[in-house]
Amino acid sequence: MGKFLFMPMVLQQMAQEKFFRRICAIALRLLALVAIFAGLSGFVHIWNHIVKQRGSEIPGGVIFILLFAVAVYMVAHTLLIRAEQLLELPETEFGIVSIASVFLRLGGEVYAGFAVPIAVGGGIFIWFGGEDARDFIGSMTPMVKGFGDGTFLGGIEYMLGGGFCALLVLLLSYLLAELLEIALKLTGPR
């Protein structure tokens, strides 16, 4: 009967830092793949919206779709870079803290990498498309909506607001990662 009970072996493997880092790296690579497919789906959705617009709104939509592609690239590449970084971490007594630190930084980097191009492209799209463009962007990218209105100044507010939020999230994620590392150093061997 003991031959069929595999959980003790699984738990023993998960307790090893190297195995856990490898699983996390695989998960990040899969997440990058998901981001690419979600980006392709979003690209098609945006394109379908753009082709239905008036001629004067299309240039803003084209700029937005190009910056959307940049945002998807930034997210996917960041995930792949951090997956490699996980594999290169040195083994330590508290390895999970190092992994958590990478994930905290990653959260801010992914948000900023997505939000900044979307904020810039969205602001430009608002300049060309007005309130309709703002509503569409809000439905496509709910994590970067809520700034400005359908005017020229609203487009600028969308860019600045999205960029500022990205900076705050990035700052907060790096701060939390560093606090975690400081706590580890303070509790480590003396």
Helix percentage range? over 70%
Roughly how many Å apart are the termini? 47 Å
Biggest sheet: strands, sense, closure? none
SSE run: HHHHH
Walk me through what this model shows.
- With about 190 residues, the chain is mainly α.
- The chain has a single domain, classed as Four Helix Bundle (Hemerythrin (Met), subunit A), CATH 1.20.120.
- The protein is built from five helices and no strands.
- It has helices at about 5-15, 15-50, 60-90, 95-140, 150-185.
- Helix 2 packs antiparallel against helix 3 (about 60-90) and helix 3 packs antiparallel against helix 4.
- The chain is elongated and about 70 Å long.
- The chain starts with 6 loop residues before the first helix and ends with a helix.
- The model has no long low-confidence stretch (mean pLDDT about 90).
Q: Briefly, what is this?
A:
This protein is mostly helical.
What's the SSE blueprint?
Layout (H helix, E strand, L loop, with lengths): L6 H8 L2 H34 L7 H31 L6 H46 L11 H36 L3
Can you tag this structure with a few keywords?
190 residues, mainly alpha, Four Helix Bundle (Hemerythrin (Met), subunit A), 5 helices
